[in-house]
Task: structure prediction
Amino acid sequence: MSEGETQTWPGLRRPLSHLPPGYPAHSWAAIAGRYDDGRQPAMHRLVEQIIASPYVSGVFGQTSHLTLFVSQTPEVSRTANVLRIEQTPGGRIAFEYIEAFDEPRRWTRECAPDDAFATFERFLELQKWFVQSPGAEPPPA
Result:
């Protein structure tokens, strides 16, 4: 593979130049502090659940205004290969995953605040962001 290219799946190479620059991830403690002002208690609770989960070491976050961006890499794009999470004006939690292939696909869900962490876990499972080692305990349900 030459410099400036990345392997996205077997047989397909894409230049990295098509992706916008990413932003350094924030620490999860800093992200929790961002939502600790009482304006979005459901987002604060979700971030606290991510921090307490086994996933915390394998996902990276970044915020912009009140939106949380979650990525698999420490440099977080806000427009490609990123899970965007925000609280709607009605108090629900909206998830949107944006892929960066030739024809971007989107995965979207909206749920009640009490279902936010379970929805986050379903996303991780669906996208296979974590692979269970043979004989390892599965992540908590």
